[in-house]
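PROTEIN DESIGN WORKSHEET
SECTION A - STRUCTURE
LENGTH: 382
TOKENS:
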């Protein structure tokens, strides 16, 4: 005998709606929660801070190493000139002795001295010449030894540069691996949100049908309907930007949306004898770059060491500088008014950041004047 599903007191239509509601509930129960993304993002955030600190130190070491290499190369150039001059002097002296018949001619001069006084003077003269020759040889040897030391130092410096470059590459790959983890977690969250949104809409439709059909025992699945706006925002990929009160700004955001790492590298040595005048914020390539506060895009520039750059002037006259952007967001132009958290570009590695990890070099110029350390302001916005 075949068994049929029977729900006492429920009409056929209501029975179908009840089964639909049950299926929707089961679907929601099987959809994973976004805890994986939160855990992954937190892990990446911590790793980003560690890598940003390590990367800053490596850049400092690389700059110091380049400076040492430059000094050694300059010293080598000077030393080579000295060595050439001493070698030329020695060669002239050796040539003179050869033309004079080497040592025999000097002994001849001694033997043909007209008297003992002249003999003594000639002996003294030869002694001076001998001492001079000895000093030239000694100085030549010392100079050559120093040249060998410089060459060894340069070789070690070049090896150190290669080691540092390898470390930087390794760090960059670590970052990229972490970024991929975040990307996969975000894609998983988006799929979860899509499934939950679909299930929520189906549940809401079933609830309305039940209500239209009259009161039934299973007409309360509203608890299973998530917040549609949040789900729709996740599905659409709209960046969620945290805007807080920080320092002298009532509305302030970090320059990059999403996982971002940075360290206090203000004043650290950089290539070309420069000092770091900002904070580098590490984040995935293409991550949304946003206005840190309400203001006007005062300048847009491209080229040179900064690559793609933007200036934001706040209402109080402070100016913020962004460098190494991948590009500008659609609609962003010079003179455009923006609000805190509004996307103005994307994270990149243009200019002298090419080949390194994607990051934004960020500067703060109070009143539009000299740059000050932006790290404390950025740290307070977390």
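SECTION B - SEQUENCE
RESIDUE ASSIGNMENT:
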């Amino acid at each position: 005998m075949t068994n049929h599903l029977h729900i006492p007191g429920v009409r056929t239509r209501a029975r179908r709606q009840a089964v639909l509601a049950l299926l929707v509930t089961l679907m929601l129960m099987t959809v994973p929660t976004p805890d994986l993304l939160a855990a992954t993002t937190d892990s990446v955030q911590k790793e980003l801070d560690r890598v940003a600190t390590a990367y800053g130190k490596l850049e400092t070491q690389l700059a110091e190493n380049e400076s040492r290499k430059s000094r050694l190369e300059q010293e080598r150039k000077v030393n080579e000139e000295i060595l050439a001059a001493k070698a030329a002097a020695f060669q002239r002296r050796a040539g003179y002795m050869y033309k004079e018949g080497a040592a025999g001619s000097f002994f001849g001069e001694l033997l043909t001295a007209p008297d003992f006084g002249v003999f003594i003077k000639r002996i003294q003269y030869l002694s001076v010449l001998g001492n001079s020759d000895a000093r030239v040889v000694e100085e030549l040897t010392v100079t050559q030894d120093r040249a060998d030391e410089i060459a060894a130092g340069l070789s070690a410096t070049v090896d150190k540069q290669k080691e540092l470059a390898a470390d930087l590459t390794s760090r960059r790959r670590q970052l990229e691996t972490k970024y991929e983890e975040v990307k996969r977690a975000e894609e998983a969250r988006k799929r979860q949100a899509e499934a939950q949104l679909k299930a929520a809409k189906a549940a809401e439709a079933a609830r309305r049908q039940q209500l239209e059909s009259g009161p039934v025992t299973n007409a309360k699945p509203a608890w299973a309907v998530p917040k549609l706006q949040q789900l729709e925002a996740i599905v659409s990929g709209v960046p969620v930007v945290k805007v807080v009160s920080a320092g002298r700004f009532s509305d302030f955001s970090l320059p990059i949306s999403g996982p971002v790492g940075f360290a206090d590298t203000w004043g650290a040595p950089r290539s070309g004898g420069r000092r770091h005048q900002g904070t580098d914020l590490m984040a995935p390539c293409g991550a949304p770059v946003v206005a840190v506060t309400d203001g006007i895009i005062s300048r847009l520039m491209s080229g040179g060491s900064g690559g793609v750059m933007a200036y934001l002037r706040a209402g109080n006259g402070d100016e913020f500088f962004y460098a190494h952007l991948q590009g500008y967001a659609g609609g962003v132009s010079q003179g455009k008014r923006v609000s805190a958290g509004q996307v103005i570009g994307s994270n990149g590695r243009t200019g002298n950041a090419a080949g390194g990890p994607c990051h934004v070099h960020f500067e703060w110029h109070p009143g539009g004047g000299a740059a000050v350390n932006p790290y404390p302001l950025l740290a307070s916005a977390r």
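SECTION C - NOTES
The chain has two domains: 1-238, 239-380.
The radius of gyration is 38 Å.
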